[in-house]
Write a structure and sequence with these properties.
Layout: E1 3-9, E2 21-25, H1 26-44, H2 49-70, H3 77-84, H4 94-116, H5 122-133, E3 153-154, E4 161-163, H6 171-182, H7 190-204, H8 211-225, H9 236-242, H10 244-256, H11 262-298, H12 303-315, H13 320-327, H14 331-343, E5 347-350, E6 360-363
Antiparallel strand pairs: 1-2, 3-4, 5-6
Helix pairs in contact: 1-11, 2-3, 2-4, 2-9, 4-5, 4-8, 5-8, 6-7, 7-8, 7-11, 10-11, 11-12, 12-14
Length: 365
Amino acid sequence: MGTTGLQLSADVSQKMSFTPQFEITNSITAELTRIERARGFLDAAKLSEDWIAGMQKRALVLEAHYTTHIEGTQLTLEQSERILAGQKVRGARPDDAQELLNYKKAFELVSGYLESGEPITEALIRQIHKRLVQSVRGNKASPGEYRKIQNYIVNLRTGEKTYTPPPPLEVPQMMTDFVSWLRKDTQIHPVIVAGIAQFQLVHIHPFVDGNGRSARLLSTLCLYRTGYDFKRLFTISEYYDRDRPAYYKALQSVRERGMNMTGWLEYFTEGLGAQMRDVQMTAEHVMRKDVILAKARKNGLKERPVAILGYLLTAGKATVAQCEEELKMNRRTLQRDFKLLVEKGLVREVGTGPTDPTKYYQPLL
């Protein structure tokens, strides 16, 4: 792991007690470059408003699901989708469902705040926490209130205490110093600021419960307010939940290295970079799809076969039976349209014959 050899700290008054320590390594520089490229691509990309709106809604579902799943909810992604759509899900634990809905309310609070342009305050962070844990587990998390007791981070599998947060009496001053730093013009890259914010809130652990969720949403808020919202299409918690041990290890590395955040920031930028590459690849696919469909219409293809082609471009491949179910079309009509699409060189047929149930159709990109 190479470094630039430059030791950085926040450009703030020495009187402040919070001065994050980190180094800009080659890894961080590379990820920031990738993130900037993805940001530039999304800013310039010609994507339909309907597609963006649909993907934003999907990103909210994914973030709500994964950020609560990290904290122990047992819902499947499908169950989370249904709950957020206002449906009842049999067998879902009430607290799990409530935590999911609470995230949506907290996200709406953050969205409203962005429109106001107000600076981040302790009151806002407390309000975010209040919305996240309201009406969950008998309100034992003291919604919106700093903790008055000593809490611990425990390995649920072994019962071992892995982290003892600062004493409760230190929390108010630590939060004041932290928020004061967030409001300073530090000249630090906004993505790095977002990563620092996420770690520091987890480190202070100012609340009885819900600190991880609050920290991840605060990090998102820091990105959004500095122009790094990426059209609100990304979901960072999905990356964390994919390998939770790596996530916790990255957080713990800061304390193991004398509060140097370099390792955590490498992990943070790698995760955001990975998510943004996924978003960019999806957007590029949609743009290619739009070009192909526009060309098909220009060449005289009617809307029904265009709709079939559009479905295949999204799904990657499909059998006649799958198209029949998804598109609600007559089988014979589908077979005629598939024949036309094959003749025009837009789709290829893969299979041994008309009666082969495994035969499918695949678009030729």
